[in-house]
Amino acid sequence: MYSLLKKMINRKQQAPTPFIEKSSKEDITLKKQCITDKLNKTVDIFSHIYSVGKNNDVIFRKFHVQALKKDAALLFINTITDTDHIEEYILKSIQQYSGTSQKVEDIVTTPGIKKVQVIEDVIIEINKGNAALFIDGESVAYILSVSNFQGRGIEKAENEVVVKGPKEAFNEKANTNISLIRKKIKTESLVVESVTVSKRSKNEVYILYLKDIVNEELLSDVKERLCMSDVDSIQNLSMLEQRIEDSTKSLFPTILYTERPDRASSFLEDGYIVLLMDNSPASLVLPATFWSFFHTSEDHYLRFLYGNFTRALRLLAMFITLLISALYIAITNYHAEMLPPDLLLAISSTREIVAFPAVVEVFLMEFAFELIKEAGLRVPSPIGPTIGIVGALILGQAAVQANLVSPIVVIVVALGGLTSFAIGDLALNFAVRLSRFFLIISASLFGLYGLTAMFSIGLFYLVSLRSFGVPYLAPMTPKYTSGKDTLFRRLIFHEMFRPGYLKPQDMKKAGEVSDGKKQG
Amino acid sequence: MKKLLWILKSVIILLLLVMISGCWDQMEVDRKAYVVGIGLDKGKKEKINVTYLISNPEYASQQGGNTNEPATEIITFEANDLITSRNIANSVIAKEISYDMLSVIIVSKQLAKDKNFIRWMYDSTKDREIKRNTAFLVTKEKASSFIEQNEPKLETRPHKYFTLIFEHAGETGLIPRSDLMRYFRITEADGDLFLAALGTNQQTNQERSNGHLEAGEFKIKGKTNKTNLMGSAVFKEGRMIGELSGEETRLSLLLNDTVKSPNYTTTFQDPFNKDYDITAKIIKNKRNNVSMQQMNGKTILNIKVPLTLEVLTDHSMVNYAKNKEKRNQLKRYFTTKITEKLNKLVIKTQKDFKGQPFGWSLQGRKYFLTVDEYEKYDWMKSYPNMEVNMSVEIRFGEFGRQTDLPKIKQVRD
Amino acid sequence: MERSKGKIATREFIAIVILTIGAKMTDDTPAILYEKFSNAAWMAIIIIGIFSVIPIWLLINVFNTYKEKNLIEIVLYLLGKPFGYFVLFCLLVIGSVAITIDSSIYTDIVGTMYFTETPTIVLYAILMATCAFGAKRGLEQIGSFAWSILLWIKLSLFLALLLTFFQGKLDFIFPLFGRGVDEIMHGGISNLSICADFLFLTLIVPFAVNHAEFKKAIWISLCIVTVELAIALIAFVALFDYEPVKMLNYPFHEAIRYIRLEFLPNIEALFFPFWLLALFIRFSFYLYLIALLFGGLFKIKDFEYLIPSLATLFVLLGVIPENPTFSIFHFRDPFLKIVTPVFLLLPCLLWVMSKIKGDIKV
Fold first, then answer.
1. I want to staple A74 with a disulfide (CB 3.0 to 4.6 A). Which of A61, A225, A286, B153 is the partner?
2. Residue A8's pLDDT band (boundaries 50, 70, 90)?
3. What is the ipTM of this complex?
């Protein structure tokens, strides 16, 4: 039987047909050349590269520079540049220049200016929204920074909502995001390095770290992984995450994706590394342990007891989501004597008129619930409320009345669904929701025995996960010196150390405070 | 990718395998018939008659609440033992017999007195689903007729009825706490007698004063269940040898430290006015002091019973709270009265049962260093010859909610 | 940032030891002890704990002398090649027999107490598959696993024992000395092998982060395990009395079937999963140890790859006996007796040899 199945599955694996590709050797050699001092030739080359004329927003402005007595040409893409700036700081200042200097740097008044010789480099800069100034007789291009990409402004965090704490979130502009972080960490040791990670689209990744805290080995590891990818385009951080994470097939996430600048900067201060990118309204924090997904920033903004109360609630919610359906199946199918007699009779009487076995019932409801979640997410907002009505009415009421499922299963699944929302992090949420199905299957096969065995396998798997070499459950196990912020957090005075598993250059982040002092 | 495919394939195959073979211990809750009580009677020769009291889940539930089905189903049949009976029952009962909710095992007096009774009892240790905390009840009539005629009016679900009646009758001390675990433990230790709850739903016409009643002698009128649980059946070495009345059961519980002692109200003749009775609540919250002495080959047991008494009625209007002398007089009266009763009970156990149900062997064990010495002494055999010195220490608690009473003459004036 | 080195810290080590040896109170070990010592079994276990100090102390002394060497290397070094190999082979056989007996007993517990209909081989296969999966992850992971669930297991155990005490009578531990003081002393020494696991524990000495701490960890865990076992043995007697408790195969499981918690009349399923977790740790760790010993003996470097095949082997061996309830029972008792001298003599031998070689200076 196995071989038959194997054949069926393997049948479609055939040798791939070779691609027919057009050679781009010519283009590449052209781009490797330097700029000549003949303006006309330069203009021709760039007109060819940018298909000026066909390409609507590429503008080649030619003019005469009075001060130098030379012809010049300005090349830019007007949709990603600030045309006001070009007019104000370049064209106007060149035309109205009355000084005696012959240097372009003195004539043009833009804040950023640099000289570039290779055609390829010029192209990169222009694609970034800068303007290139070519002057007849000079074999360099002056790159003037006038870029202005369009994007939305800073808005409230939508996915990681807090009641008490900063509300601003990252947006799609890396510059804004860096600015948001710099606003929180005002130190010269905050370094923003950039690395180009894709070949064609030239996507840039900004690596942020505190140079006197971060572990050098970790940093070079991250850089190495970033440079490894051989790909034309990496649009944003979510794509990047999948390329650099430890194990791509793992059920559990190993890199934290957060849209809150306050969270990112508090991780930075602890010695973590933060990655930013254009087009991603978020940041990646690495390495990430289980706890960084389990925590929210509000846990620390709230007072000690309140914060820990929410932690306890979340922990409970996580276990309920994970186990409740599986436990229901295990107990009703294998260990019915465990139920209090009245409950046992109640369940038995409602099940009597239901057609399906309990397992099918639970799967039916779980599937329906996941469907409501997914559909509710994708549905256009004007018809959003319908989902709620349809879901609640059909699943809650009608399914029970039609004897499709018993009411207790509705309660069990609804409780599991509700508690799953208490896990804020999307990745962890998915991980828990998916592992729940494994548990349900094993519980339906071998009751509590199967359930516990599957749980153990899951836990074994969890403790063997690594994120950039850091054990997934650190610092709970194995033990490291740290702020001991795991399941519950300590008093803020007692969180004196940075996480030891990162091996930061500076371990201590706060001085000791005696009890008397902090009371005063 | 290949690895993922492999995992996928093996998961599919595993699922198929399991679906084909089915799950061994799996059983849906609605496919079981929940036996709440098992009745055991003597059958022909070495067989027993087993009665199953099966609870109907649909009765009184929200969904199937409007059902016309009765609350219980009762079947009686002959079987060799408790294990085979499960399978035989399925020729009548459609659902699989389950002991998940088993809360009581009911045995007729006739079977309990049989010399082979203990053999059937040990069947229950073999079955996985029978737990040792299942209650144990002896009935005067046949267990099957007891179950059939037991018609609780308010607690129509049988498990509720049995749980509640054992709990509350046990609290007032009219029946002892009896479960399978105690039965086995006491039988195997062979130092004490085991007391099981005694019940019946037949009324007898014997006249006795309140409290000295045995099961069936308590006259009740009105529309209610005829069943009453009162008194206890005495088991020696796993076999029933006698009975104790409700009053005696209460007293035996006062002497027994291995169970939670009951707090109950009882009546005494008023020492100051013979026409009236005094109602007192007896509370025992300290442990007895049992000490053992060996004197010229004779064993002397000294037992101190500390009791707290709350005098709740005062029909002779003596006003005990205010009158110290009367109070002392009352205390002396109670002390002698209770000591008398206790002594009577002890003599009865020594003479009639040749063993004691008070758990004293447990206290006696402290006087032996090794198990061998203790077993050689043989508590059960030595007990009838022991000299038991009973001393009761009474402390008064409160005298009702309102301690003062008006002078009767003033009121009548 | 630290790369994982497969080392194991003190608390993870203690967690493993407490769970693996502490699990003995839930199998038939109490039944064996009650059989011999009646209600004084708790005293016997304390005696066993005290006497175990000697071999363990000797072992630790030897290990202190040869830091960075594990049991295999030390045995080979001290006893010479042929004899050393023979001793190690004996240890391997003892370990394999122990794991086979234990696992078939635990499977029997699951089979008779909870899953009566399911075929033994299926239960066995699940147990060993889970443990092989865990053992293959490595020692550090087993330690982490143990530590992360230690609290919950101990809480559930504590609850079970507390309820047992409340529903039992402490008076049952009298007559105090059970079958007599002599019996306790003699029997205690001849059953020393209950703590023989400590001998095997020394296999993982080179994996300990810190030697001084390792020493401390062994003493701490010995104390905890002894006290825990003694309390459990008292609790079972307090619930069942000494005569009935002898008749129970698995007192722990009978106890959790009897106790009740307010509105929940049957709470055994509440303790069952936690007990299973401890079980999985226990056999993951044993499998790892056996694989380590096997690898060391036959010079296999990547011994982790042996684990699945070893697990399969143990399953096949374990299902051979007709019925573990009686065949294993009768096999186990003499086995414990045979292991005792090994546990006593091997450390002495090592110590003496080390002394002769002049490496230990006292």
1. A61
2. low
3. 0.92
